[in-house]
Amino acid sequence: LQQRLEQEKQRSLGLQQQISQLKAQLYSSVPHHESTMPESQSSTVLSAIVMSPSQQPSSLNEAHGQGTQTTPESPQSLTRGPKERMHHNIPHRFHTGICMRGAKCAVCLDTIHFGRQATKCHECKAVCHTKCASCLPSTCGLPSQFVEHFRMSVRRKKQMSVMNLSADDSSNLQMEGWLKIPRNNKMGWDRRWCTLNGCKLYIYDMENKEDRTLCDEFDLCPEDRAVSIHSAVTAAELIHTAKTDLPYIIKLESHPGTTCWPGRTLHLMAPSFPDKQHWAAALEVAVVTDNMDQDGDEKKLRGNVLLKLDGSNRVEINTSLLLNDRTLLLGCEEGLFATTLPVSKSNKKVLSKIGGVGSVFQMLVLQEVDLMLMIAGIERILYSVDLKHLRTKVAQASVSVPTIQSRAVQGLEGCHLFSVGKVDDSLYLCAATLNTVHVLQYNNKTKNFSKKQDIQTTETCSCVQFTSHGFIFGSDKFFHVSHTTGQVTEFLDKTDTSLAFAVFGASQCDSFPVAVLKGSPDGSA
Hints:
28 strands
């Protein structure tokens, strides 16, 4: 028994040596192709970028959950690193606040309206919805051009990936991948293989096969039509689509030049946010390229250019105010500036800085009380400035950097919007903060505004409009406030049958107030 045991050990050792030799021969004979992207899933390269280098797959398709063919291990494979990997995992430093200007979400590409809450990174200034912040990759500080270059270098391989975008020749733009389109007169979406070739979008029933069928075709550059690409859709457009799927949808609209022919709309649903971003960018490039190639027979009406800021004079403008016929004030992120109109081409110093305030977001002149109101500073404080004092300092701005003296209005901080109106010969001021609308009335004796009422809101106020009996403001709904009693009531009366459709539609489509405008003068029907 002992001898047989020794013989079996020797036989097993010989077999292990033969297996090792076969593994080495097989490893040396297998060609090592460069890694490609997966074919069944289309995820962004950023998901692989933020992984640790020790955990990154040798071919980026492992980062997307795709199984790969295993190759025999060798001593060289243990020391050799992956051919294509990049480690950049720096989380964003997010803070949530009020959006002071309309922006586009960096994740879902939907619009972030003024006055709504948004999430912004302190470092790279990326802006997105609060609900989308968790989907933004941890690429803080990484230039977007570098990410695009890395993505393009991975995709330019011998074997084409599921998403193939070539930016070398915009006139021969190519991109393909799986998308979903709505079913005809039915609920649900069908998965289709879409190919963007130049200015044509082809929709097939299956991937690259000889017997596939062309289901649909969309021309992005028609001669007698105008095409627009929308990165956001509303629930009212696709009533049978889940709310969670709406952020992944792109809408293509074709507008005819005449009313004789109907327009056309095509909705596309991407499998992920990165895929939506890539498709939206490619479609927009195709449409813009065609617009640039046109002769421009139909020229748009353009006004005279009064002011052009470039080079050292370039600033980020938030608001503007015409102080008089020849003086224009610009409220910018860099501060308050003044310029004289018309601007002389020989004058290199176009803008004159006015000190005493930080970033300026809104300005308004009240001629009847000789005041100028403005929201300024990091804390967005509501200030009042004497109008005569301001005009004197603006006149000195061409030769020096004057400093204006301002006074905070009732210590209001965190303001993002204000409006002034006259009701029954009294001047009222409405200032909106995060969850409060402050109502103030001007006192002619003290020459200042005094608080009259504070109204708590469930959503941030987005607009204010004064009427002959009070004012209207919008938060989650439109409300009307009486200036005599201060009573707050819904502006759209549910008992009014003429407004029943508007009330019902607003509640069904998750609509929220954006703006309110005055359509007729006071006292008219």
